[in-house]
Amino acid sequence: MSMTTEPQTIPGYTYASATLAPSPVGADDLRLLETTLLWTDDDERYLRMAGEVLADQVEAVLDLWYGYVGSHPHLVHYFTGPDGEPNADYLARVRARFGQWIRDLCARPRDATWLAYQEEIAQRHLDRKNETDGVDSVPMIPLRYMVAFIYPITATIRDFLAAKGHSDDDVEGMFQAWFKSVVLTVTLWSRPYAPDRW
Amino acid sequence: MSMTTEPQTIPGYTYASATLAPSPVGADDLRLLETTLLWTDDDERYLRMAGEVLADQVEAVLDLWYGYVGSHPHLVHYFTGPDGEPNADYLARVRARFGQWIRDLCARPRDATWLAYQEEIAQRHLDRKNETDGVDSVPMIPLRYMVAFIYPITATIRDFLAAKGHSDDDVEGMFQAWFKSVVLTVTLWSRPYAPDRW
C-alpha cells in the first residue's frame, strides 16, 4: 500500500496548469546551468533510478526533513502564524507538495513546463509566500536558508538511495544525480531574489 | 618542495586587513547557518584534517578547477576583457587567491575576521568585481553560477581527500565537512546579491 497522494489531489499543486506564466529562464539558460553542473546522460538514467528507489520512501524522507525543520526553531519559524505557533495545516499542505517535488525532480523532463513550475515555487518562497495556502505567516524565506538547504536535502538522501540493495556504483550515481538536481533547483529558486543579478 | 605561495605575497589578498569593513552578517547569524548545516564538532576536526590532506594538492585542485572553467566558454567569459579574450594575468591573480581560499576554509576560525573577508570576496564577485585586480572585464558574476558552483567545487574534491590513504570513514568525514563549508561560503557570498531578502 502506497501512502502516495495523487498529484491532482494535492492542494496548491499546479504543475502544468494553463494559468502558470512561462519562466523567464529559457531552455538555453537551463542547458548552460546543466553544463555547469557537469550533467551527463548517466545522470538522467540515475535520476530515474532514484525516483524508483525513493517512490515508497517519500513519506519517510519527509518525516526526516520535517523532523529536522521542526526541531530547529529558526526554521519552523517560517511556518508560524501571528501567535508565533506553527500552523499545522500549513505544514501539512507544504509537506504534500514537497513530496511531489521529490517525485517530479526524479521523473519529469526539464522542459518549459518544468521551468514554469520551478519559477512558481520560487515565487512561493518569496513575494507570494502564504498566498497558495491562504495563511497568515512570515512573509518570506530568506535567501540564506534557500541556499543552505542544499546541504541537508542532499546529504540526508543517501541512506534512502542505499536502502534497496543497489550496488555502490549505482548508489553513488543516484547520489550525484540527486545532488546536481538539488543544486539546479535551488539555483532556479534563487532567481526572484535577485532578478537583475541572477 | 611546496608550490604554496605565501599569503602575504598574493596580490589582492587582504584577509584580516584593518581596512576591511566588518561583515553585516553577525556571529548569531553565522551560528544559525551552521546549525542549519547540521554542523558538529566532528566537522571542525575533519576540516582541519582536510586542510592537511589538501595542503600539497592545492595546485592540482586548481588545475582541475581551472581546466573546468577554461573548457566552458560561458564560464571563462567572466575572465575576458573587452576583446572577448581571457585575461591571463587576471586568471592567475584570482587563481592564487582561490588556492588561499582552500587553505583558509580548512584552517581559519570562523570569527568576525573570517566573516569580514567572506563579505569582501562576495562584493568582489558583484559590485566590486575587477577593482582588486585593476582589470577591464565583465562587470559581475551572476548569482546563478555562484550557487551552481557548489556542485563542482564539492564533488571534485573527494578524490583529493582520498589520495593520502585515509580510511573510508575519514574521507567521508572530510567530504561532509568540506560540503558544509562550501555551502556556507556560497550562502555568505550570495548576501550582496539580495541584501534585503538574504
List the helices and strands and how they pair.
The structure is a homodimer of 198-residue chains.
Chain A: H1 27-36, H2 41-54, H3 58-70, H4 73-76, H5 88-107, H6 112-124, H7 143-148, H8 150-155, H9 158-161, H10 168-189
Helix pairs in contact in A: 2-5, 2-10, 3-5
Give an account of the 3D structure.
- 2 copies of one chain form a homodimer.
- Chain A has 198 residues and is an all-alpha fold.
- Chain A has 10 helices and no strands.
- Chain A has helices spanning 27-36, 41-54, 58-70, 73-76, 88-107, 112-124, 143-148, 150-155, 158-161, 168-189.
- In chain A, helix 2 (41-54) crosses helix 5, helix 2 crosses helix 10 and helix 3 (58-70) crosses helix 5 (88-107).
- The radius of gyration of chain A is 17 Å and the shape is globular.
- The mean pLDDT of chain A is 96.
- The A-B interface holds A 29, 32-33, 35-38, 68, 72, 74-75, 126, 140, 142-145, 147-152, 154-155, 176, 179-180, 183-184, 186-187, 190-191, 193-194, 197-198 and B 29, 32-33, 35-38, 68, 72, 74-75, 126, 140, 142-145, 147-152, 154-155, 176, 179-180, 183-184, 186-187, 190-191, 193-194, 197-198.
Rounded mean pLDDT of chain A is: 96
Instruction: Report low-confidence residues of chain A grouped into runs of 5 or more.
Output: none
Distance between the termini of chain A: 43 Å
Bulk shape of chain A: globular
SS content category of chain A: mainly alpha
Number of helices of chain A: 10
How much of the sequence of chain A is in beta strands? under 5%
The number of distinct β-strands of chain A equals 0
Rg from alpha-carbon coordinates of chain A: 17 Å
The quaternary state of the protein chains shown equals homodimer
User: Biggest interface and which pair forms it?
Assistant: A-B, 38 and 38 residues
Biggest sheet character of chain A: none
Helical residue percent of chain A?
55-70%
Reading the helices and strands of chain A in chain order gives: HHHHHHHHHH
